[in-house]
Description:
- This protein is mainly α.
- The protein contains seven helices and no strands.
Amino acid sequence: MGDENFYMMKANYLVELNWFDRAIINYKKALRDSKNHHIYSMLGYCYSRMGDHNEAADNYRKAYKRIPDPNINLGLAISEYEIGNIDKSEEIIQDLQDSNYHLESSAQHTIMWLEEKIAVVRRERDKLKH
């Protein structure tokens, strides 16, 4: 087993334990030997769980559109929302809805939740303009 696989397996176990900071260290070690875009998506997930949405978005962007996975797209949409990129978040949501992906009910609920949050932000922005 190569170093990349070892560190990815270790990191995946750490994610299951919710030890995201330790998982990040191991995913980064896996990246030394690889540019596997799945690793970037997992880094995005870990950073988002730790509340570092800028790092989450940076990593999700490296996997977005390279890997056809609605979970990556949804993770990026949430991270973009969290850092204030509302238009980009909406664009990603629209791409998800226009795609041929089969979205699980939990993903559909997350999209609806995110759309509601975006609508609230837009209403508040409109109030400030007037």
